[in-house]
Amino acid sequence: MGEGTDVGIVDGPQELTPGWITAALDHGGHGLRVIDVVSERIGTGQMGATYRMHLTYDGSPGPATLVAKLGADDPAARALVAPGYAAEVGFYTALAHTVSVRTPRCWYGQISADSASFTLLLDDVADCAPGVQAEGCSVAQASAAVMNLVGLHAPRWDDRSLWEQGFLMRPSPEMARGMGQAFQSAAESFVERYRSQLDHDVTATLEAVSDAIIPWGLTGLEPFSLVHGDYRL
Q1: Strand partners, 69
Q2: Are the C-beta atoms of residues 126 and 40 closer than 8 Å to each other?
Q3: Alpha carbon distances (Å) from 121 to 97, 109, 168, 172
Q4: Who's near 142: CB < 8 A, 6+ residues apart?
Q5: Per mean pLDDT, which range of 30-34, 196-200, 228-232 is the poorest?
Q6: How much of the chain, in percent, has pLDDT values that exceed 90?
Q7: SS3 for 29-88, per residue?
Q8: 151, 101 contact by CB (below 8 A)
Q9: Strand partners of residue 54
Q10: What is the Cα 139 distance to its own chain's centre?
Q11: How far apart are CA 136 and CA 55, in angstroms?
Q12: How far apart are alpha carbons 220 and 116 in whole angstroms?
């Protein structure tokens, strides 16, 4: 197990043992005893590693499957996105119960002091269909997505106690410049690749947004609330 408190942090699938999962569930007060686990890698994310665990219990049954989210295999990737790890674990363990956004249930969450290693045990939502940006969505799906954001933004709107949560990423000149540079680079690559398929109005809008990202990121910070930061279809 990696650095951490309580039952600790899992750093690889070989550590997702019946004993460890039982201890993690006990830590959350669930009183379930796991006697067998079969893990499989799911997803294609580069910034983290995700596993579906098929669980067998002794006595009272629990969920047939859970999903474990761990740090990326690549140490360089871990260092790069460590603030994101901290924000995700912090949300599930400290904020999720205070908002009305739909999320998987978190059964356990722990993160290391340097935020480079973490473990989350979440409900398996395999019966849900992920959005596909290239295919678009229906009006009903778009409406549901927007209403879900209301459940994230409204409950903690202008709540100054949020500033006490050290894991939250706060707007700053450095963040604004980073966003601006990333968007500008992405927009240039996109226009270069798809120029023959884009109207002039589209390319002009992308260029204008590129120029506006940094000033927008430096505007006033009130009112404020929780935002997802990477909310997409």
Answers
A1: 50, 120
A2: no
A3: 16, 7, 20, 32
A4: none
A5: 228-232
A6: 64
A7: CCCCCEEEEEEEEECCCCCEEEEEEEEEECCCCCCCEEEEEEECCCHHHHHHHHHHHHHH
A8: yes
A9: 38, 65
A10: 25
A11: 35
A12: 31
Amino acid identity for residue 163 in this structure: W
Residue 36 has a CB neighbour count (10 Å cut-off) of 11
pLDDT at 3: 39
Q: What is the pLDDT of residues 107-142, one digit of tens each?
A: 999 999 999 999 999 999 998 888 888 899 999 999
pTM: 0.83
The Cα–Cα gap between 83 and 79 comes to 9
Longest dimension (CA), the chain: 65
Closest to 106 measured CA to CA, from 87, 120, 119 = 120
Amino acid identity for residue 141 in this structure: Q
Ordered DSSP codes for the chain: -BS-STT-B--SGGG--HHHHHHHHHHTT----EEEEEEEEE---SSEEEEEEEEEESSS---SEEEEEEE-SSHHHHHHHHHHHHHHHHIIIIIGGGS----PPEEEEEE-TTSS-EEEEEE--TTSPPP-GGG---HHHHHHHHHHHHHHHGGGTT-GGGGG-TTS----HHHHHHHHHHHHHHHHHHHHHHGGG--HHHHHHHHHHHHHHHHHHTS---S-----SS---
Query: Which amino acid type is present at position 124?
Result: D
